[in-house]
């Protein structure tokens, strides 16, 4: 039977680098940890490589009219996205998240394959039997049903989910830097976990606009793969007065804002999550799991240090939701700080006095997911 015309013709396959490969490189340099369980890691590596081999074989034998290229996750660069119309992440949730950081304009869809899923027997026990496996919550299918899953995606099936992401901008003395959008969450904290994270948090209300182009117009690439890196430096070496805020005001997105309802926080940092990430670190920190349809963001001051006489309204402001019109503002008051984007691998350093603006205005990520998942927010974008 003849195949239907392919929905996508140019694929980029992004392949996870396994822990076995990473530790093997350390072993060659004599710096691998002594407690590494080599047999377990090699078993995981072999299953992952078998999935990659099966994927390539399936594409060649069953989808010969489709072009594809492969790249290791650690080598992924924006140049690899040229002329690509679908990115395939082979590994787990971490690989999906890493790919999403390069798809910052939301023009290229993404599908994840869990290359080493848990088997039936492992799912019957109370605890995880192997800490190296990925949960695969962001993956549409696994190595076990790879051929059917790819056929669905490439020939017109599958469910394309539109996922809200976090937009974060850091404003320093002479620059504004727009960070890559986060699919799961952001953590803003001191680099040392035992140190207090000091910041002033408030909400921005516009005062006036000028005739300049908007921040998004100046910074956003027209297609995924544009730009020159993971963080976009918009203004640099400019007039300092352009960035010097007046009392209780700040300039962002070429507009002056008043900072309202602000309060000082001594804490272990600030969590901000999407609906996608709300069931992960945010839920563990005391937040709530959100409906996957929600475009809102959730924030929570982590381990907030409050005196007994702290007003109730300030206590209430320490956690809540951000809607589409909200701009959350932080003034960083510790000597050093960091913003962790979707985990620990991607981060941005903060200095005393830096300002951080957070909203949900990043372009959505278009992610293929399992069709039977009733929580999905779907859009027909193809």
UniProtKB/TrEMBL annotation:
SUPFAM superfamilies: NAD kinase/diacylglycerol kinase-like. GO terms for molecular function: NAD+ kinase activity. Signal peptide: none annotated. InterPro entries: ATP-NAD_kinase_N, ATP-NAD_kinase_PpnK-typ_C, NAD/diacylglycerol_kinase_sf, NADK. Keywords: Kinase, NAD, NADP, Transferase. One of its GO terms (biological process) is NADP+ biosynthetic process. Pfam families: NAD_kinase. The keyword Kinase applies. Gene3D superfamilies: Probable inorganic polyphosphate/atp-NAD kinase, domain 1, Probable inorganic polyphosphate/atp-NAD kinase, domain 2. It comes from the Eukaryota. Belongs to the NAD kinase family. This is Uncharacterized protein. It comes from Triparma retinervis. The lineage of its organism: Eukaryota, Sar, Stramenopiles, Ochrophyta, Bolidophyceae.
């Amino acid at each position: 039977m003849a195949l239907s015309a392919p929905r996508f013709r140019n694929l980029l396959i992004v392949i996870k680098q396994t822990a076995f490969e990473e530790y093997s490189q350390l072993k060659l340099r004599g710096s691998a940890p002594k407690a590494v369980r080599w047999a377990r890691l090699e078993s995981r590596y072999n299953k992952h490589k078998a999935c990659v081999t099966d994927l390539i074989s399936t594409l060649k034998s069953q989808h010969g009219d489709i072009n594809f290229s492969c790249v290791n996750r650690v080598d992924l660069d924006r140049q690899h996205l040229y002329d690509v119309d679908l990115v395939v992440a082979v590994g787990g949730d971490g690989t999906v998240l890493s790919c999403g950081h390069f798809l910052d304009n939301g023009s290229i869809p993404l599908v994840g394959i869990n290359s080493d899923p848990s088997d039936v027997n492992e799912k019957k026990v109370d605890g995880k039997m192997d800490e190296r496996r990925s949960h695969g919550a962001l993956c549409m299918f696994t190595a076990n049903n790879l051929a059917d899953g790819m056929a669905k995606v490439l020939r017109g099936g599958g469910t394309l989910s539109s996922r809200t992401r976090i937009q974060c901008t850091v404003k320093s003395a002479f620059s504004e830097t727009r960070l890559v959008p986060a699919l799961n969450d952001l953590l803003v904290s001191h680099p040392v976990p035992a140190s207090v994270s000091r910041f002033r948090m408030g909400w921005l209300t516009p005062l006036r606009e000028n005739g300049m182009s908007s921040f998004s117009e100046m910074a956003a690439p027209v297609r995924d793969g544009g730009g020159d890196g993971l963080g976009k430096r918009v203004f640099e070496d400019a007039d300092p007065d352009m960035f010097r805020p007046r009392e209780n005001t700040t300039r962002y997105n070429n507009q002056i804002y008043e900072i309202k309802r602000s309060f000082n926080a001594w804490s272990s940092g600030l969590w901000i999550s999407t609906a996608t990430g709300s069931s992960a670190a945010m839920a563990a920190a005391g937040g709530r799991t959100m409906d996957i349809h929600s475009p809102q963001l959730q924030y929570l001051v982590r381990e907030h240090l409050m005196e007994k006489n702290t007003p109730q309204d300030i206590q209430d402001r320490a956690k809540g939701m951000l809607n589409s019109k909200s701009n959350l503002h932080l003034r960083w008051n510790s000597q050093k700080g960091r913003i962790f984007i979707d985990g620990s691998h991607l981060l941005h350093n903060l200095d005393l006095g830096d300002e951080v603006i957070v909203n949900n205005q990043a372009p959505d990520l278009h992610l293929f997911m399992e069709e039977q998942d009733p929580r999905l927010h779907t859009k027909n974008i193809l």
